[in-house]
Specification:
Strands 1-2-3 form a three-stranded antiparallel β-sheet. The longest helix has 26 residues, at 114-139. It is globular. The chain has helices at residues 35-41, 44-53, 59-71, 77-83, 92-102, 114-139, 153-162, 168-181, 188-198, 203-214, 222-233, 236-248, 266-282, 286-305, 313-323, 331-352, and strands at 19-22, 27-30, 33-34. It is mainly α. It folds into two domains: 19-220 and 328-352, Citrate Synthase, domain 1, CATH 1.10.580.10; 222-323, Orthogonal Bundle (Cytochrome p450-Terp, domain 2), CATH 1.10.230. It contains 16 helices and three strands. 56% of the residues lie in helices and 3% in strands. The structure holds coenzyme A.
Length: 387
Amino acid sequence: METKNIGLRGIEVADTRISNIDGERGRLIYRGYDILDLTKNSTFEETAYLLLYDELPTKGKLDEFNAKLVDARFIPKQMQKNMGNWRKDADPMDMLQAFVAALAGYYDEEFANKEASYDKAINIIAKVPTIIASWNRIRNGLDIVDPDASLSHAANFLYMMSGEKPDPEVEKIFDVCLILHADHTFNASTFTARQVASTRAHMYSACSAAIGALSGELHGGANTEVMKMLLDIENIEKAEDWVKEKIAKEERIMGMGHAVYKTYDPRAQVLKELSRKLAEKTKDPWFAITEKVEMATIAEIKSQKNRDIYPNVDLYSASLYYMLKIPMDLNTPIFAISRVVGWAAHIIEEKFAEAAPKPALYRPKASYVGKYCGPEGCEYKTLDLRK
Ligand SMILES: CC(C)(COP(=O)(O)OP(=O)(O)OC[C@H]1O[C@@H](n2cnc3c(N)ncnc32)[C@H](O)[C@@H]1OP(=O)(O)O)[C@@H](O)C(=O)NCCC(=O)NCCS
């Protein structure tokens, strides 16, 4: 029997009002608004409100939302104490997954109430940066930096991570990165979040599961792998041969290719320009090497497979974060700082969608290809009879 729908590619499994990708034209829309417009005119907080509540906030609503986010930034001291027991070289994504799940042990979860779910969403969105920054300080033997209520979501994370308040240019760059990563329809982690929510599990559980999905190198983990690749290439002169060798061995070039975009990922376009500008200032080689990797991959895939390939969101975010002096293994957790907004919006939609068809418990079919001894099943032999 031929297995159908491998990886669910092209299969529509639910209706959503949250975001839309036009893979042919390279456009990403959040609640009706083009991502490029949002990066130019909006902030992460405003975009988060839009994704959660289906409309751009008024000034009053945004102030109220910001105040709730700022209030919820602190995490329990006991949690920070527990982090101290972890191996200092533990993967920050493992730590994040565990501590987001652990939030359920400190804060109650109201299952059946949409308003309460928004409060949980705000609680998680506000606390994810604090969890990551606290862990980064603890593992480096540094004092934890408490959140600063006067700073934006973007600036506050950079401050808690490094102990230094970022300049406005760096804050803006990071804010744009957060806007760009906030949602992306039914990607692997969002689908995971929705799937868990479809069982009526609570929001901490669904977000924690989504973090697990995001950690893999074919999804959010790709940006860390891109930076490892750049460090391995080291010198622009080596980039082309490096790419050719990998493709000859049928290995993947991280940060290239996308399951949905058939043209340039609009997020990669924005990140490429930000990375270019930052490199002009810092004189780092990483942007130039990345661009060479992009060109070499496009040329090699065309000549080897007669196929078009384009950068995805992870290609240029890697060099950008490196130049912002963000530790390499925090690239994927930073993705989570932003994507948790999308997860929360999808979890709420999954649980409380009002229009038909309403979401249902996900339960795909599998194509069984295992042992078969006839309709009665295989004969069970006790241990002493098995050879
Ligand atoms: C993201 C990804 C899984 C999407 O894959 P996809 O569109 O389903 O495409 P497939 O995996 O079916 O690959 C299609 C072909 O392009 C090639 N290809 C796709 N991405 C490639 C990459 N990054 N490097 C080299 N070749 C690649 C594959 O080898 C395959 O060739 P084949 O048909 O000869 O086997 C894939 O592009 C990838 O692995 N990229 C690297 C990881 C990454 O950056 N992930 C972050 C995604 S946002």
